[in-house]
Amino acid sequence: MPWFKRVEKGIITPTEEKKETPDGLWYKCPECKTVTSMAEHRKSLNTCVKCNHHDRIGSKEYFAILFDDNKFTELDENMTSGDPLNFVDSKPYPERTAATQRKTGLKDAVRTAYGKSGGLDITIACMDFAYIGGSMGSVVGEKIARAIDHARKTRTPFLMISKSGGARMMEAGFSLMQMAKTSAKLALLSEEKLPYISLLTDPTTGGVTASYAMLGDFNIAEPGALIGFAGPRVIKETIGKDLPKGFQSAEFVLEHGFLDFIVDRKELKQRLNDLLGMLVETGDQGGIEAKPERAAKTL
Ligand SMILES: [Zn+2]
């Protein structure tokens, strides 16, 4: 008789739910090469305990950091992209989509959700770099547009966490249309005096930088994040000059006036809550009233 018997049959655990598997026990910082235990690295929210290098994380981690008790309701959870151009590179686009979905457990490169952060209602859209380089295709644009509509309908602030290599080439022109669509929706959000905070994380480039990522009432970034439109090599070849040190880092972009502030991930939730606390007040009907509107009323 065996020592252990499987009582329940057919237990299948998705890869991302498995404990202690894929990452190993140790983390080596790519910047300063310090080795720490994975547990300690996670405890410091995937930032290096020695040099504060911010490791890339996904929507799952950001939602856990920002939503109170990691409680949130996801919007348009199952939206997936079509193949409008019958695009084939090294493999057909639908095959790539299916393989990426299996590998990452994600449906596309953005997840949108609403819930409470620091007791205040908020709608958050967060991109995932693991899904085809966080590229912006039709689904990314549509989900962000709908999340903005949700924020407008429920009168909640909107936070966008960008992390993207730019437009998705497999959807070509359809990707570029998302820039106009999301920008137009953000204009409506602004008209209704609801705050939009844009958090730029490593990397935020291409069409994402050129549309919603730079349109925040506050544009904030994580330390050391690469932020730009075209890559340094392209720019160097175009202008025929060497680029200054630290070019396209969050710190460089801040110094040149494109960002409001840089926020350490460990302080992100508190800073966000403080900022929103200054911008909004809870209205009588639930949801929020923007303070400028109230000021205008009393004048
Ligand atoms: Zn380090």
Automatic annotation (TrEMBL):
Keyword check for Repeat: no
SUPFAM superfamilies cross-referenced by the UniProt entry: ClpP/crotonase (SSF52096)
Chain positions recorded as Zn(2+) binding sites: 29, 32, 48, 51
Domain CoA carboxyltransferase N-terminal: 25-294
Recorded catalytic activity of this chain's protein: N(6)-carboxybiotinyl-L-lysyl-[protein] + acetyl-CoA = N(6)-biotinyl-L-lysyl-[protein] + malonyl-CoA
Pathway: Lipid metabolism; malonyl-CoA biosynthesis; malonyl-CoA from acetyl-CoA: step 1/1
Keywords, sorted A to Z: ATP-binding, Cytoplasm, Fatty acid biosynthesis, Fatty acid metabolism, Ligase, Lipid biosynthesis, Lipid metabolism, Metal-binding, Nucleotide-binding, Transferase, Zinc, Zinc-finger
Cofactor (UniProt): Zn(2+)
EC number in record: 2.1.3.15
Annotated PROSITE patterns: COA_CT_NTER
GO molecular function: acetyl-CoA carboxylase activity
Pfam families recorded: Carboxyl_trans
Cofactor binding remark: Binds 1 zinc ion per subunit.
UniProt zinc finger (C4-type) residues: 29-51
Localization per Swiss-Prot or TrEMBL: Cytoplasm
Main location class: cytoplasm
Highest taxon, organism lineage: Bacteria
Self-association state and partner proteins as the record states: Acetyl-CoA carboxylase is a heterohexamer composed of biotin carboxyl carrier protein (AccB), biotin carboxylase (AccC) and two subunits each of ACCase subunit alpha (AccA) and ACCase subunit beta (AccD).
Family: Belongs to the AccD/PCCB family.
Function as written in the Swiss-Prot or TrEMBL entry: Component of the acetyl coenzyme A carboxylase (ACC) complex. Biotin carboxylase (BC) catalyzes the carboxylation of biotin on its carrier protein (BCCP) and then the CO(2) group is transferred by the transcarboxylase to acetyl-CoA to form malonyl-CoA.
Name assigned to this protein: Acetyl-coenzyme A carboxylase carboxyl transferase subunit beta
Taxonomic lineage from the root: Bacteria, Pseudomonadati, Bacteroidota, Cytophagia, Cytophagales
